[in-house]
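Extended Data, panel c. Modelled sequence:
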Amino acid sequence: MREFKRTDRVADQLQKELAVLIQREVKDPRLGMVTVSGVTVSRDLGYADIYVTLLGEQDAERIKENLQVLKRAAGFLRSQIAKRIKLRHVPELRFHFDESVVRGQQLSSLIDKAVSTDRARQEQDDASADESGEEPR
């Protein structure tokens, strides 16, 4: 069995090329700082689902606007990819917002909050144990 599937190799190459193209070639002022976080390609190489994150953007309206800009630029991006990658058929590009990064940040902040609360409670217990003359745990 092969170590890497062709669709995986195409997806990796698309991710690299799209990251550069979006940064340098898409000139729409409404487009924020876009990061291509992942690409999946269908088995027949007909479609590529591109997952993007937006730096500092949490507003649903701004996310929707950025996705619309990318969808409008999909034809241009696809033609540029055709010039850069040797493929018989360049996949149709479909853009999606990747919520995993935002969700990860939310979970991380919840964990940090729980740890700090636990630390404060532990320090409070140690302080009350010192006042009563008991051994700290």
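The first strand starts at residue 34 and ends at 41. This feature is highlighted in the accompanying rendering.
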